[in-house]
Prior knowledge:
The protein has helices at residues 8-31, 39-42, 50-57, 125-315, 329-334, 342-349, 353-363, 410-425, 442-446, 457-473, 531-552, 555-558, 609-638, 650-654, 656-659, 678-692; strands at 318-324, 366-368, 377-385, 391-399, 402-404, 429-436, 477-489, 492-495, 509-512, 517-520, 526-528, 560-571, 573-574, 577-578, 582-592, 663-671, 703-705. With 706 residues, it is α+β, with helices and mostly antiparallel strands. The strands form 4 sheets. Strands 1, 5, 6, 7, 8, 11, 12, 15, 16 and 17 form a 10-stranded mixed beta sheet that branches. A hairpin with a 2-residue loop joins strand 7 and strand 8 (492-495). Helix 1 (8-31) runs parallel beside helix 4 (125-315), helix 6 (342-349) packs across helix 7 (353-363) and helix 8 (410-425) crosses helix 10. The longest helix has 191 residues, at 125-315. Residues 1-122, 344-352 and 599-604 have low confidence and may be disordered. Adenosine-5'-triphosphate (ATP) binds at residues 325-326, 328, 436, 438-444, 556-557, 595, 670.
Amino acid sequence: MADADPSLPVRATNNSLKRKAIIEEDEEAVDQPRKLPAIGATRPNRPLQPSRTATNLNTSRGATGVALPKPLTKPKAPALTRSTRGTSAPPVSSKPLSRPTAPSRTTAGRVVSGSGPVRSTGGRPSDDKRFQELQTQLTSIEEARAADAARLAADMEAERSKVAELQANHLALSRELATAKSQELNQRRELVHASDEIENLKKKHSMEVMDLEMDVKKRDRELREVNEDLRICRADLERERETVSSLKNTITHQSTAHLTITTQNNALRHSRQLCISELTLKLETAQKQVDDMKKEAMESELVRRKLHNMVQELKGNIRVFCRVRPVLPSDLTTYAGSLSSPGSSTSSASGGSIDFDKAKEELQASLSYPDQRDHKEIVVSSSSSSATGQERKEIYNFAFDRVFEPDSTQAEVFEEISQLAQSCVDGYNVCIFAYGQTGSGKSFTMEGGASESSSGMIPRAVEQMFRVAEDMKTRGWEYKMEGQFLEIYNETVNDLLGKGEFDKKKHEIKHDPKTGSTRVTDVEVVQLSSPSQVRSLLAIAQSRRSMAATLMNERSSRSHSVFTLRISGVNVGIDDCPGTGEKCEGSLNLVDLAGSERLNVSFANGADKERVKETQSINKSLSALGDVIAALGEKGEKGGDKHIPYRNSKLTYLLQNSLSGNSKTLMVLNLSPLAAHLQESLTSLRFATKVNNTTIGTAKKQTRVS
Length: 706
Ligand SMILES: Nc1ncnc2c1ncn2[C@@H]1O[C@H](COP(=O)(O)OP(=O)(O)OP(=O)(O)O)[C@@H](O)[C@H]1O
């Protein structure tokens, strides 16, 4: 049997190969899923025809294309003794062989030894025997084949069940495959999504990497900078350390020095304390002395005032000074006609000194000053022809409180007056008149020229008062000063410091009997703070007067001007020394009277009515002044309630408080030196003498204690 079925191992091998192929195909089918037809269903289950099956099994496939299990190999004919060519062998029949068949060939045409049909060699007995043997062999082969077929059928059945099982598996696998496919699809999508995400992440990552790289570069840069800073800092630190160490050394040195100095300082402090105590003691003593001296000074100030007043009283409360002005070059021109040699005046005008002196001698009156010690006398000599033709010489002696010769200076005149300024600061009313004919030098005496040396009594008195007020501060007094400047023209009061139109405003004179002060309504009263301010005020007054003069002609000679300076003080004390609170008020009236020559000049023809009016006004006011002074004199001599006619003129009414017994009055008689003015001069001298002989009571100081 083993020889009869030599293909069995081959078939087994083929089966295993076929299974492997099926598995591979199944595996392939899993890779490429397709529906497999059921083997039993697509092919009729008919008995196997080995030859055909054997022939077709190798290559047949199901209609579905699924590889079928390989058919069993056809029993092979026993190998022939000699090999035959496959191509000449007859086709294999599936019917049982009636005669020996040609040996079977393999699909490749190779002859299988011992299994092919045996060809008859032709009618010999050996051949018949051989044929029977072969027949027997064939029978046994066919039986074997039948057995094989049965076995094959069983195998087939087994295979079919396996196939069915495999198909079921295949179906399950296909489903799994489909599921797997959809899963795969999902996974692919996920994969794509994941890939995108990965891509994005990669980009992001690369960006981050770039950022990080930049950051790293930046950090590197910063690090370099920090390292550089660190290096600099280290260098600085090193330097600082060196400095600190040198400072430490210095401190050590200085500590030693400080210790030394502290020791010295303590010693010095101690000695200074001693010194201070000593000095404090001395200072206290000195302070006490100063206080005592201040008290003494204040007391002596009171004594001084009393003494000063006594001296003034002894001198008389109304005093008269006489001042003769020099002959002026202009006089030579004016009175050239009265010169014996008129030509000399011309030459004198051109500056010839010999001629001038000669003409001067000719023009001036005979005035002499015999009292060269006290300068109190003036002698006027005049010669006149009597009716019989005899020359008559007359000598007139006049004595005054002081006579100033033509060459006397403004300073000399003021020296005598300055005492009155002091009295004013002390709280007295002072009145200084300039009396005299036109051109005698009244304005020059009162106001003076522009230069320092020629400045008159008003600016000098003001300066003096400021000086005295300043001095009095050291004695505990504080002063305020105010000034006004009025003009009385044709019995009308005008404000020389006013801003309104001249001569238009009406001003009234008012006296306060309680305080003894005089006020004029609507006049400019200026607070005086410095002598220079007073000088500018005088200039303003002068310009206003000059302006009026162009309208009225020679206004200054035809009107009285009254500059009033009021001073008020209070004793506030000095430093720690309290003041007495005493108050005092004084006034200084500086009066430039109108020309006095009116007494002899008459405009009776009425040609110049204005001039007549002026003359009458001047006459009235100067007469009233004489009357007031005379009445005051009488009152002083006899006492009682003698009426004083202050109201007879604006001038006397204005000066009421400065002419009364409470005041100090000075009249400066200005005289012209010219012979041509001799009669006028004599009249003035007589008037002044009358005034000088008057005694006006006792001046009273205006004080109040608050
Ligand atoms: N002592 C003096 N020394 C030098 N010149 C004088 C002196 N006195 C007066 N004079 C001069 O005489 C002239 C007349 O003087 P002043 O004007 O002062 O006279 P007056 O009396 O005020 O005249 P009027 O009444 O017209 O104002 C002026 O030029 C003045 O400078």
